[in-house]
Design goal:
Radius of gyration: 21 Å
Number of helices: 5
Structural class: alpha+beta
Bound molecules: flavin-adenine dinucleotide
Order of helices and strands: EHEEEEHEEHHHEEE
Helix content: 10-25%
Distance between the termini: 24 Å
Largest sheet: 10 strands, antiparallel
Shape: globular
Strand content: 25-35%
């Protein structure tokens, strides 16, 4: 895989050493997270809306109700900025000012394109479903025509994107290091809980099984 070109918009200026344009890193962050925030301006009003998404090669798909104001606005081809964030740790410093978070995040600039081709739309639905639990698409009933009609799917290419990654301990001032206060990193990970089957599981002898994505 290769590096994306840094553009005027994606050039990381603040802490540039934390920035990367490596496609593999960008994809791995996108594949691990669950939520993207879609930012756009509609008649001068900025909106930032959290949404599910899925990645396939060099694009992400978002979807929703065909009557959604958000998706209708976006499908008119307005510019979007999509961000995805994973928080890896709480960074506790000896001064309030130096507290931070360890993170991996991605910022994507682009345009949302309406997916109209039926086969492509179905593939986008597979990608969105399998992003939640890989392989789920093959196990469940797939969308029928009325469901597809009610769904708008948009695609955003990953041509102009940056990732930023913070790792490591707090960056305390030397003059604070002798203060007797705990400092360091509290790692945060997303762990699955025990699956809770709904009341219909088992009625037709379907065994409850461990469900989690990617063995995280
Ligand atoms: C969980 C989390 C918490 C944060 N908390 C704070 C905070 O409290 N205060 C604060 O100032 N900053 C915080 N940051 C960092 C913040 O995201 C910005 O990187 C930083 O504020 C600099 O913004 P800027 O617009 O001046 O950066 P610039 O370097 O001017 O941004 C230029 C370009 O760099 C890229 N870029 C910038 N930031 C990111 C990013 N995080 N991920 C991917 N690409 C990026 C984008 O393409 C952007 O357009 C946090 C980041 C994360 C992920």
């Amino acid at each position: 895989m290769s590096e994306l070109a840094a553009t005027e918009r994606t050039k990381v200026r603040r802490h540039p050493e934390r920035g990367t344009y490596d496609q593999e890193q960008i994809y791995s962050i996108l594949d691990e997270a669950y939520v993207c925030h879609v930012g756009f301006a509609d008649h001068g009003q900025p909106y930032v809306i959290p949404m599910a998404y899925g990645r396939s090669e060099n694009r992400i798909f978002i979807h929703g109700s065909a009557i959604s104001r958000l998706l209708t606005s976006l499908s008119a081809g307005i510019p979007v900025c999509v961000t995805v964030t994973i928080v890896d740790g709480l960074v506790l410093a000896r001064s309030a000012f130096r507290h931070s978070l360890n993170y991996r995040s991605v910022v994507v600039f682009g345009e949302a394109t309406l997916v109209t081709d039926p086969a492509e739309k179905m593939e986008a639905m597979r990608v969105l479903t399998d992003h939640i639990v890989p392989g789920r698409w093959e196990e469940v009933r797939q969308p029928n025509e009325p469901e597809l009609q009610k769904t708008t799917v948009l695609s955003i290419r990953l041509d102009e994107a940056s990732a930023k990654i913070r790792t490591g301990p707090p960056l305390d001032l030397d003059s604070d290091l002798s203060r007797q206060i705990w400092a360091g990193v509290i790692p945060l990970t997303m762990e699955p809980g025990e699956p809770k089957p709904d009341s219909h599981v088992g009625l037709d002898k379907i065994a409850t099984r461990q469900i989690w994505r990617r063995g995280l």
